[in-house]
């Protein structure tokens, strides 16, 4: 059996320190319930002395967690902070007080104005005071990543002797290279008396984009608790993302001699929940939970994934609750992806026929970022209409606007391939085009209905026009046309209806 790595979630404390991410108690409770469902080992619920709201959040989360997980409140190495945290946690079944202070030269000298010995004294006092309230006390050595290693060993040893059950080695400013941070953990394990009896925790920040790498390297070197947040929220560039560290441990568990008890199928739901509550959007290319994490939009990748998912995916999306892999159709897609999606929509084609569909698809794709199912339906139906064409559109140009008279110049091509060009005025651009069509086609009809709708999403959507024309004998013919340009779709729709009328007469 591999080592169990405790997942200490601090979304509600460090995560909330992301500018703009603050949450009220109700919101924190909703997230806490999801963290419990996900089976995290520890929830850091807040900083109780910070405000009455945070005090209440810690108390309420302690109440709902029961014995399902440990609930932790953060404090400074200040008596009042510790007493207030103890009060907030007094009804929690598994309470933990997390106390500590800065240990790097700049934190000691510039922020706390303490000598090393004074800092040790303060740490010991804080841990002992916390232990007088609860059995589970975590000591943090803030900015350990930039501390003098000999001093770090001394203060950690003093905290362990004072009764800390967990020692937290944070790289508060995300300064370290992963191997240097790992070496610190290995060194502490070698030099600190009694460290084998406590949990070594790490709390890393993402200032150099390495929070997850730092945490994993620490695990490789003996840490057995990782502090992390959903979506990597947290002060400045954020913390280690819970979903990343959990999945990295899951994928490389044997190599790391590590596992977690997280229900990974809940990760996507947790990510969406935190994003919607905090208003902090998840970047599309975010590992594990980003919208594009399992999306493939280039032909070579799509072909590979369709043949065997693991050619381009190391994680089964179902394992993180993300549904399935996505094939995004774009101008970079090849035949394999288009054929696959068409088949899913119920369309199969012979090779020749499919090639012309693929060419029509590329034309649409070059005009749009993404080709949606509705676009594909439109391509197929447009093509069905074109096969019955007697007249086809050669060119259409319209000038209109205030105070111009709407004028259309139109070229239609007949069945023999001959081009017919006319110009016409109208009350509006569509009216001008339809008058021009009538000049060429010259078949008695009355336009009884005209409707336009965007068939796809976004500003670059395809516009589909549906028209109904009534022939002299009262028979009604429907025509449809779609294009990114609504004048072109209007023209195609009208020609399509007239073609039906004429072929009926023939
Ligand atoms: C590494 C972390 O601690 S991350 C957690 C960050 N979270 C927070 O800051 C929680 C929100 N903070 C707050 O609500 C407030 O800052 C409080 C309640 C904690 C303190 O408020 P104030 O008493 O007004 O102090 P203020 O915020 O201005 O300054 C912090 C003081 O704490 C001291 N301090 C900072 N960290 C510690 C520590 N771990 N142990 C002891 N003292 C500390 C600072 O030196 C400073 O003391 P000084 O005023 O004597 O110079
Ligand atoms: C309180 C500690 C653990 C912290 O948030 C940090 O060092 O970043």
TrEMBL record:
It catalyses: 3-methyl-2-oxobutanoate + acetyl-CoA + H2O = (2S)-2-isopropylmalate + CoA + H(+). Gene3D superfamilies: 1.10.238.260, 3.30.160.270, Aldolase class I. Mn(2+) binds at residues 14, 203, 205, 239. InterPro entries: 2-IPM_HCS-like, 2-isopropylmalate_synth_dimer, AIPM/Hcit_synth_CS, Aldolase_TIM, LeuA/HCS_post-cat, LeuA_allosteric_dom_sf, LeuA_bact_synth, PYR_CT. Its EC number is 2.3.3.13. Its cofactor is Mn(2+). GO terms for molecular function: 2-isopropylmalate synthase activity; acetyl-CoA C-acetyltransferase activity; manganese ion binding. Transmembrane segments: none annotated. The keyword rRNA-binding does not apply. Residues 392-506 are annotated as: Regulatory domain. PANTHER family: 2-ISOPROPYLMALATE SYNTHASE 1, CHLOROPLASTIC-RELATED, HOMOCITRATE SYNTHASE-RELATED. This is 2-isopropylmalate synthase. The lineage of its organism: Bacteria, Bacillati, Actinomycetota, Coriobacteriia, Coriobacteriales.
